[in-house]
Amino acid sequence: MSTTQTLALPRTQLRSLLHDYAELTKLRVTSLIVMTAWCGYFFGAHRAGASWLNWGLFHALFGIGLVSSGTAALNEVMEHEIDGHMARTASRPLPAGRMSKLHAVAVGLIAAIGGSLYLAFFTNPLTGLLTFLTSVVYLAAYTPLKKVSPICTFVGAFPGAMPGVLGWTAVRGRLEWGTLVLFAILFVWQFPHFFSIAWLYRDDYAKGGIRMLPVVEQDGRSTAHRIIGYSLALIPISVLPSLMGMAGKIYLVGAVLLGLALLYFGIRLAFLNLPLSSAPSKMRARHVLQATVIYLPLLFALMMGNALHY
Predict the structure, then answer these.
(1) Longest dimension (CA), the chain
(2) DSSP 247
(3) Considering the entire predicted model, what is its pTM?
(4) CA distance linking residue 177 with residue 180, whole number of Å
(5) Helix axes 125-137, 152-160, angle to 10 degrees
(6) Is the alpha carbon torsion for 73, 79, 83, 86 positive or negative?
(7) Cα(277)–Cα(270) distance, integer angstroms
(8) pLDDT of 118-152, one tens digit each?
(9) 226 and 270 Cβ atoms separated by less than 8 Å
Protein backbone atom coordinates (compact mmCIF):
# COMPACT_ATOMS: atom_id res chain seq x y z
CA MET A 1 0.00 0.00 0.00
CA SER A 2 1.41 3.41 -0.98
CA THR A 3 1.87 6.33 1.43
CA THR A 4 -0.97 8.18 -0.31
CA GLN A 5 -3.32 5.23 0.22
CA THR A 6 -2.18 4.94 3.86
CA LEU A 7 -3.02 8.61 4.49
CA ALA A 8 -6.30 8.40 2.60
CA LEU A 9 -7.63 5.62 4.83
CA PRO A 10 -7.61 7.62 8.12
CA ARG A 11 -9.08 10.63 6.29
CA THR A 12 -11.93 8.49 4.98
CA GLN A 13 -12.52 7.07 8.44
CA LEU A 14 -12.48 10.58 9.93
CA ARG A 15 -15.00 11.84 7.38
CA SER A 16 -17.21 8.83 8.09
CA LEU A 17 -17.02 9.44 11.86
CA LEU A 18 -17.82 13.15 11.46
CA HIS A 19 -20.79 12.24 9.26
CA ASP A 20 -22.01 9.81 11.91
CA TYR A 21 -21.67 12.46 14.61
CA ALA A 22 -23.66 14.90 12.45
CA GLU A 23 -26.45 12.31 12.15
CA LEU A 24 -26.27 11.32 15.82
CA THR A 25 -26.57 14.94 16.98
CA LYS A 26 -29.13 15.87 14.30
CA LEU A 27 -26.97 18.70 12.99
CA ARG A 28 -29.72 20.31 10.89
CA VAL A 29 -32.16 20.45 13.80
CA THR A 30 -29.44 21.68 16.14
CA SER A 31 -28.55 24.43 13.64
CA LEU A 32 -32.18 25.62 13.63
CA ILE A 33 -32.24 25.59 17.44
CA VAL A 34 -29.03 27.63 17.60
CA MET A 35 -30.41 30.12 15.05
CA THR A 36 -33.56 30.57 17.14
CA ALA A 37 -31.52 31.02 20.31
CA TRP A 38 -29.54 33.69 18.48
CA CYS A 39 -32.78 35.58 17.87
CA GLY A 40 -33.62 35.36 21.56
CA TYR A 41 -30.14 36.59 22.51
CA PHE A 42 -30.46 39.46 20.03
CA PHE A 43 -33.70 40.73 21.59
CA GLY A 44 -32.48 40.13 25.12
CA ALA A 45 -29.45 42.31 24.35
CA HIS A 46 -31.74 44.95 22.80
CA ARG A 47 -33.84 44.92 25.95
CA ALA A 48 -30.71 45.42 28.03
CA GLY A 49 -29.49 48.23 25.74
CA ALA A 50 -26.32 46.28 24.97
CA SER A 51 -24.63 45.04 21.82
CA TRP A 52 -25.58 41.49 20.83
CA LEU A 53 -22.26 40.88 19.08
CA ASN A 54 -20.04 39.81 21.97
CA TRP A 55 -18.50 36.78 23.67
CA GLY A 56 -21.74 36.23 25.55
CA LEU A 57 -23.39 35.31 22.24
CA PHE A 58 -20.69 32.72 21.56
CA HIS A 59 -21.04 31.21 25.03
CA ALA A 60 -24.84 31.06 24.76
CA LEU A 61 -24.97 29.50 21.30
CA PHE A 62 -22.12 27.09 22.00
CA GLY A 63 -23.71 25.86 25.23
CA ILE A 64 -27.20 25.57 23.77
CA GLY A 65 -25.80 23.80 20.71
CA LEU A 66 -23.98 21.32 22.97
CA VAL A 67 -27.10 20.49 24.97
CA SER A 68 -29.19 20.19 21.81
CA SER A 69 -26.61 17.84 20.28
CA GLY A 70 -26.41 15.73 23.41
CA THR A 71 -30.18 15.52 23.73
CA ALA A 72 -30.46 14.42 20.09
CA ALA A 73 -27.82 11.72 20.64
CA LEU A 74 -29.60 10.36 23.73
CA ASN A 75 -32.90 10.46 21.84
CA GLU A 76 -31.38 8.32 19.09
CA VAL A 77 -30.11 5.87 21.70
CA MET A 78 -33.61 5.58 23.16
CA GLU A 79 -35.17 5.14 19.73
CA HIS A 80 -32.52 3.09 17.92
CA GLU A 81 -34.82 0.08 17.57
CA ILE A 82 -37.66 2.23 16.22
CA ASP A 83 -35.23 3.92 13.80
CA GLY A 84 -34.23 0.52 12.47
CA HIS A 85 -37.81 -0.12 11.33
CA MET A 86 -38.17 3.13 9.40
CA ALA A 87 -36.64 3.76 5.98
CA ARG A 88 -35.84 7.42 6.70
CA THR A 89 -33.84 6.61 9.85
CA ALA A 90 -32.51 3.07 9.26
CA SER A 91 -29.18 4.43 8.02
CA ARG A 92 -28.45 6.35 11.23
CA PRO A 93 -25.25 5.20 12.96
CA LEU A 94 -26.91 3.17 15.74
CA PRO A 95 -29.47 1.10 13.78
CA ALA A 96 -26.93 0.67 10.97
CA GLY A 97 -24.38 -0.70 13.45
CA ARG A 98 -21.68 1.90 12.74
CA MET A 99 -21.61 3.12 16.33
CA SER A 100 -22.10 1.38 19.69
CA LYS A 101 -24.79 2.45 22.15
CA LEU A 102 -22.12 3.05 24.79
CA HIS A 103 -20.31 5.43 22.46
CA ALA A 104 -23.52 7.32 21.67
CA VAL A 105 -24.56 7.49 25.34
CA ALA A 106 -21.15 8.88 26.29
CA VAL A 107 -21.36 11.55 23.58
CA GLY A 108 -24.91 12.44 24.58
CA LEU A 109 -24.28 12.69 28.33
CA ILE A 110 -21.05 14.65 27.98
CA ALA A 111 -22.65 17.14 25.58
CA ALA A 112 -25.97 17.54 27.43
CA ILE A 113 -24.60 17.78 30.96
CA GLY A 114 -21.40 19.56 29.94
CA GLY A 115 -23.35 22.09 27.89
CA SER A 116 -25.71 22.82 30.80
CA LEU A 117 -22.79 23.38 33.16
CA TYR A 118 -21.04 25.50 30.55
CA LEU A 119 -24.11 27.75 30.28
CA ALA A 120 -24.46 28.00 34.05
CA PHE A 121 -20.84 29.11 34.35
CA PHE A 122 -20.39 31.32 31.27
CA THR A 123 -23.88 32.89 31.04
CA ASN A 124 -25.94 32.46 34.22
CA PRO A 125 -27.36 29.64 36.39
CA LEU A 126 -30.95 30.23 35.19
CA THR A 127 -30.03 29.56 31.56
CA GLY A 128 -28.05 26.46 32.51
CA LEU A 129 -30.96 25.12 34.59
CA LEU A 130 -33.64 25.89 31.97
CA THR A 131 -31.57 24.29 29.22
CA PHE A 132 -31.01 21.16 31.29
CA LEU A 133 -34.73 20.91 32.16
CA THR A 134 -35.61 21.35 28.48
CA SER A 135 -33.44 18.36 27.68
CA VAL A 136 -34.99 16.30 30.49
CA VAL A 137 -38.57 17.02 29.38
CA TYR A 138 -37.72 16.14 25.79
CA LEU A 139 -36.15 12.82 26.77
CA ALA A 140 -38.32 11.81 29.74
CA ALA A 141 -41.73 12.97 28.46
CA TYR A 142 -41.87 13.59 24.72
CA THR A 143 -39.69 10.69 23.55
CA PRO A 144 -41.55 7.86 25.36
CA LEU A 145 -44.96 9.42 24.61
CA LYS A 146 -44.33 9.06 20.87
CA LYS A 147 -45.16 5.36 21.21
CA VAL A 148 -48.22 5.97 23.39
CA SER A 149 -50.42 8.83 22.17
CA PRO A 150 -50.70 11.71 19.67
CA ILE A 151 -50.51 14.05 22.69
CA CYS A 152 -46.74 13.65 22.29
CA THR A 153 -46.79 16.49 19.74
CA PHE A 154 -48.33 18.88 22.28
CA VAL A 155 -45.91 17.81 25.04
CA GLY A 156 -42.92 18.03 22.71
CA ALA A 157 -43.87 21.55 21.69
CA PHE A 158 -42.86 22.83 25.14
CA PRO A 159 -39.15 21.94 24.98
CA GLY A 160 -39.25 22.73 21.26
CA ALA A 161 -40.32 26.31 22.00
CA MET A 162 -37.50 27.00 24.48
CA PRO A 163 -34.49 28.04 22.31
CA GLY A 164 -35.58 31.68 21.97
CA VAL A 165 -36.24 31.83 25.71
CA LEU A 166 -32.80 30.40 26.46
CA GLY A 167 -31.10 32.93 24.21
CA TRP A 168 -32.95 35.74 25.98
CA THR A 169 -32.18 34.56 29.51
CA ALA A 170 -28.52 34.13 28.57
CA VAL A 171 -28.41 37.94 28.34
CA ARG A 172 -31.00 39.07 30.86
CA GLY A 173 -30.75 36.34 33.48
CA ARG A 174 -34.52 36.35 34.00
CA LEU A 175 -37.83 35.60 32.28
CA GLU A 176 -39.72 38.57 30.82
CA TRP A 177 -42.67 39.26 28.51
CA GLY A 178 -40.42 39.16 25.47
CA THR A 179 -39.47 35.59 26.29
CA LEU A 180 -43.16 34.63 26.35
CA VAL A 181 -43.69 36.14 22.87
CA LEU A 182 -40.78 34.17 21.37
CA PHE A 183 -41.96 31.04 23.17
CA ALA A 184 -45.52 31.44 21.83
CA ILE A 185 -44.39 31.88 18.22
CA LEU A 186 -42.22 28.77 18.33
CA PHE A 187 -44.81 26.76 20.24
CA VAL A 188 -47.58 27.32 17.69
CA TRP A 189 -45.28 27.05 14.63
CA GLN A 190 -44.28 23.52 15.59
CA PHE A 191 -47.74 22.05 15.00
CA PRO A 192 -48.06 22.61 11.24
CA HIS A 193 -44.37 21.72 10.96
CA PHE A 194 -44.52 18.37 12.77
CA PHE A 195 -47.99 17.42 11.57
CA SER A 196 -46.79 17.80 7.99
CA ILE A 197 -43.73 15.63 8.73
CA ALA A 198 -45.94 12.98 10.32
CA TRP A 199 -48.31 13.14 7.33
CA LEU A 200 -45.46 12.80 4.88
CA TYR A 201 -43.86 9.85 6.71
CA ARG A 202 -47.08 8.31 8.01
CA ASP A 203 -46.34 4.81 6.70
CA ASP A 204 -42.80 4.92 8.07
CA TYR A 205 -44.00 6.08 11.49
CA ALA A 206 -46.61 3.31 11.55
CA LYS A 207 -43.86 0.72 10.99
CA GLY A 208 -41.91 2.21 13.89
CA GLY A 209 -44.95 2.28 16.19
CA ILE A 210 -44.89 6.06 16.52
CA ARG A 211 -48.42 7.23 17.31
CA MET A 212 -48.50 10.65 15.73
CA LEU A 213 -51.97 11.95 14.82
CA PRO A 214 -51.78 11.12 11.08
CA VAL A 215 -50.85 7.54 12.03
CA VAL A 216 -53.78 6.86 14.38
CA GLU A 217 -56.48 8.51 12.22
CA GLN A 218 -57.62 7.11 8.92
CA ASP A 219 -58.63 10.07 6.74
CA GLY A 220 -56.35 12.94 7.83
CA ARG A 221 -59.20 15.37 8.48
CA SER A 222 -58.28 16.01 12.10
CA THR A 223 -54.65 16.57 11.17
CA ALA A 224 -55.59 18.95 8.35
CA HIS A 225 -57.94 20.90 10.62
CA ARG A 226 -55.19 21.29 13.19
CA ILE A 227 -52.68 22.45 10.58
CA ILE A 228 -55.16 25.14 9.47
CA GLY A 229 -56.09 26.06 13.05
CA TYR A 230 -52.53 26.48 14.27
CA SER A 231 -51.54 28.32 11.08
CA LEU A 232 -54.41 30.74 11.66
CA ALA A 233 -53.43 31.20 15.32
CA LEU A 234 -49.84 31.89 14.28
CA ILE A 235 -50.83 35.08 12.42
CA PRO A 236 -51.99 37.15 15.45
CA ILE A 237 -49.30 35.62 17.65
CA SER A 238 -46.57 36.48 15.15
CA VAL A 239 -47.53 40.19 15.15
CA LEU A 240 -47.10 40.49 18.92
CA PRO A 241 -43.46 41.67 18.59
CA SER A 242 -44.76 44.74 16.71
CA LEU A 243 -47.53 45.38 19.23
CA MET A 244 -45.02 45.15 22.09
CA GLY A 245 -42.50 47.46 20.44
CA MET A 246 -39.92 44.78 19.71
CA ALA A 247 -40.20 45.26 15.93
CA GLY A 248 -41.65 47.82 13.54
CA LYS A 249 -44.29 48.04 10.83
CA ILE A 250 -42.17 46.33 8.16
CA TYR A 251 -42.04 43.27 10.36
CA LEU A 252 -45.78 43.54 11.02
CA VAL A 253 -46.63 43.45 7.31
CA GLY A 254 -44.09 40.71 6.61
CA ALA A 255 -45.36 38.54 9.49
CA VAL A 256 -48.94 38.75 8.22
CA LEU A 257 -47.92 37.89 4.64
CA LEU A 258 -45.78 34.97 5.78
CA GLY A 259 -48.62 33.72 7.96
CA LEU A 260 -51.09 33.91 5.08
CA ALA A 261 -48.70 32.04 2.81
CA LEU A 262 -48.32 29.25 5.38
CA LEU A 263 -52.08 29.12 5.82
CA TYR A 264 -52.53 28.82 2.05
CA PHE A 265 -50.43 25.66 1.90
CA GLY A 266 -52.34 24.19 4.83
CA ILE A 267 -55.68 24.87 3.12
CA ARG A 268 -54.42 23.26 -0.11
CA LEU A 269 -53.61 20.11 1.83
CA ALA A 270 -56.91 20.08 3.73
CA PHE A 271 -59.09 20.43 0.64
CA LEU A 272 -57.36 17.73 -1.39
CA ASN A 273 -59.62 14.99 0.07
CA LEU A 274 -57.38 12.08 -0.90
CA PRO A 275 -55.96 9.26 1.27
CA LEU A 276 -53.04 10.29 3.47
CA SER A 277 -50.66 7.89 1.73
CA SER A 278 -51.52 8.97 -1.82
CA ALA A 279 -48.78 10.65 -3.87
CA PRO A 280 -50.67 13.99 -4.33
CA SER A 281 -51.42 14.08 -0.60
CA LYS A 282 -47.77 13.50 0.31
CA MET A 283 -46.68 16.13 -2.20
CA ARG A 284 -48.91 18.77 -0.59
CA ALA A 285 -47.79 17.71 2.88
CA ARG A 286 -44.22 18.24 1.69
CA HIS A 287 -45.23 21.72 0.49
CA VAL A 288 -46.54 22.52 3.99
CA LEU A 289 -43.31 21.22 5.50
CA GLN A 290 -41.21 23.32 3.12
CA ALA A 291 -43.35 26.37 3.89
CA THR A 292 -42.78 25.96 7.64
CA VAL A 293 -39.02 25.54 7.13
CA ILE A 294 -38.88 28.74 5.06
CA TYR A 295 -41.32 30.63 7.33
CA LEU A 296 -39.35 30.54 10.57
CA PRO A 297 -35.95 31.86 9.42
CA LEU A 298 -37.65 34.57 7.33
CA LEU A 299 -39.84 35.62 10.25
CA PHE A 300 -36.90 35.91 12.63
CA ALA A 301 -34.76 37.66 10.01
CA LEU A 302 -37.55 40.22 9.53
CA MET A 303 -37.96 40.60 13.29
CA MET A 304 -34.27 41.18 13.87
CA GLY A 305 -33.87 43.39 10.79
CA ASN A 306 -36.77 45.62 11.84
CA ALA A 307 -36.02 45.56 15.56
CA LEU A 308 -36.80 48.62 17.67
CA HIS A 309 -35.19 49.79 20.89
CA TYR A 310 -37.85 49.36 23.55
Answers:
(1) 68
(2) B
(3) 0.91
(4) 5
(5) 160
(6) negative
(7) 14
(8) 999 999 999 999 999 999 999 999 999 999 988 99
(9) no
